[in-house]
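Q: What does the assembled structure look like for these inputs?
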Amino acid sequence: MSAITTRRIPAVVTLLALLALTACAVSPGHATHARQFTAAQPTPSAPAPTPSASPSATAKPAFKSLAWYVSQVPTFPEAPQPQPVPLPTTGSAPFWHRLPTDQKVAFITIDDGGLARPPGVIDFIWEARIPVTMFLNSPAAAEHTDYFRQIEAVGGIVENHTINHNSLAGRSYDYQKQEICGAADRLEGLFGKRPTLFRPPFGEHDSTTLKAAHDCGAKAVFHWTETVHEGKVRYQTPEKVIQPGDVLLMHFRPALMDDLLAALKAIHRAGLTPALLEQYVR
Ligand SMILES: [Zn+2]
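A:
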């Protein structure tokens, strides 16, 4: 079943999305998508009317329709050329709340995958060129692979969030490795690429987590600096403004469209541009 063929979206978008899916089938790696995505990001091909364009009443998109969400997305400064951050060679993955960078970018991450998967998100990500990293639990990824593959096809990247979503802090190395490597193995099997980033459930971790994550192929372990829920950004830092390198956390929940839009507006207010985490951690 393909939601692409059933959703009512402009034909050109359908064609482009299908082309992207075709490219995915031919070349399962992510580099193609990422390059295509980055090149397209500053100038979305779909004309996105802005509120200031004052369209006539009849042309105004229906509230909370896909066109409405796209119309609400601010125009961002062009993303800088990514400068990947140095990674430690200690045998453990680094743990970061925000990416250590001064570049004027922030990162959108979406977690879990089992609770809700709003179908409009796929087109929204495509039309607004939203860079997203998905930290998935492997059973949810296995059960809803088609959905996450479609987000991959429009530029999203799948990363690791364990199998069972249990807190890892204080657990044995063997337990943590099973949760992290087990999910990485499954995600690699489903999506053709082994995750390179890891987010521990609830952000709870210890030094064993960072060692196990490294041993399972993770280059970095990420917490977050803001959460977004039901269209509201909650800052975890005293500045109450998004900083360069900040990582915004949201979830696959029913209000994900609102959460994405709220994150984009907050990033724009801070004078930053959304970027893809994987282009900075290589
Ligand atoms: Zn989670």
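The mean pLDDT is 86.
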